[in-house]
């Protein structure tokens, strides 16, 4: 699901539209034109995808019917009437999962209405995530979420303008779409046979989709937790790299080639760690947030903050089986609550000795790095637990058999920038011993 970017719907349109890698696109797939709408998109330099709009218009009734089903089911499962920003984000993710329900849950090609709904829901998810982050980082609260309010908010935070194109939906269509998401109006038409099939398997589909949305939010928390670990390593080793850069000329004049080689390796590692900190957010439709001084944030504060984010993972499956995704997110937060504990595989003292031997950073810095490596190994194990729980949820919803073990290679494939190879260079034997195969 994370890696596959080549899928097409039953009308042979690419599921990812303009985000599809060039090698999977055909010359006639995408048709772009200047945007004629008022507001932030008016005559924008970026075009709009009229081919995607044409498909959405052709399947409008089924799109709204599926939207109303998701909205009403969510309200019933959560026991809510008025929807807030996170409610809307969750509904958007239920819709974004719909093509994958057909592809992975049923081994079918996604119908066009499901693909079109998911594309629109991805835009809604970006808006909701951005305003959710704004609520966390500023003293700001959104107005009551009506269709008109959502349209105004998407205009205000720039969601209607993406990196390569602008939203192709006219205002009237957007307002009806948002009304179907947060209002109480029924669908505009009776369900087609394809939509009727989805309505009949609603609970199974929702079980699949609930694990999809929980996974994405928990993966975000895991990413934010990794940033603390990487900041600790950069804080411990960065000053030494900078100091030694000034001493290299002296080392060369005294024939210190071995030390120079070790310093060069350490410089590469620290540069890689800093690149991880500066890299894009995971998942890519989320945003990087956190304390300004990551390394200076106490373990207790790290735990409390991540735990507060995990509280937003709530059961959305009719059988509530997705509650265990939140349990894993809480465990991720707890992994940062206190210094790493001793492992049967390798002691922290032995790990620190290896770090010092590899990097020459000194006992104090090596101890900090060893603690960070042990925490990273714990986060790696928790990523495996998260993937296993979500995979079990997917398979339970689709009636498939149990999955195999989630090995290290599988865990790394979940991440856009897996740090394993880089961290292993700091303590090749000890870090490998700490991590599960």
Structure in a nutshell:
The protein has 437 residues and is mainly α. It has helices at residues 50-58, 60-78, 85-96, 98-105, 112-137, 147-157, 171-182, 193-200, 202-245, 248-253, 257-278, 299-310, 323-334, 348-359, 363-398, 408-414, 420-424, 428-434, and strands at 32-33, 48-49. The protein has 18 helices and 2 strands.
Question: What does this entry look like structurally?
Answer:
With 437 residues, the chain is an all-alpha fold. The protein folds into two domains: 17-200, no CATH class; 211-434, no CATH class. It has 18 helices and two strands. The chain has helices at 50-58, 60-78, 85-96, 98-105, 112-137, 147-157, 171-182, 193-200, 202-245, 248-253, 257-278, 299-310, 323-334, 348-359, 363-398, 408-414, 420-424, 428-434, and strands spanning 32-33, 48-49. Strands 1-2 form a two-stranded antiparallel sheet. α9 runs antiparallel to α11 and α9 (202-245) runs antiparallel to α15. The protein is elongated. It starts with 31 loop residues before the first strand and ends with a helix.
